[in-house]
Specification:
Elements (H helix, E strand, L loop, with lengths): L1 H6 L1 H24 L3 H17 L4 H8 L6 H11 L1
Length: 82
């Protein structure tokens, strides 16, 4: 939460998504060339980028999108689709 408050949600989502794309490309390259150790490292980096961007931020943003009287139902519907 501290990182989200200091860096900003939009910036964290952009940086995290960009790094996830790069690491996903690294995973696919390593898999194609049978570099097992590099693939493990890329998977670990991908997971760490997911942990600070696409993992927690949508769960924080969804309830903030809706007014109070509609928040429970709308958050439940978004959770089903997420």
């Amino acid at each position: 939460m501290y990182l989200i408050d200091t860096a900003g949600r939009k910036k964290l989502m952009a940086v995290g998504s960009g790094l996830m794309v790069l690491f996903a490309l690294g995973i696919s390259f390593s898999y194609a060339n049978n570099y097992q150790l590099r693939m493990l490292i890329f998977v670990m980096c991908f997971t760490s980028c997911f942990a600070f961007s696409m993992g927690p931020i949508p769960w924080i943003m969804i309830p903030e999108l809706f007014p109070t009287y509609l928040r429970g139902r709308a958050t439940g519907i978004c959770t089903v689709f997420l």
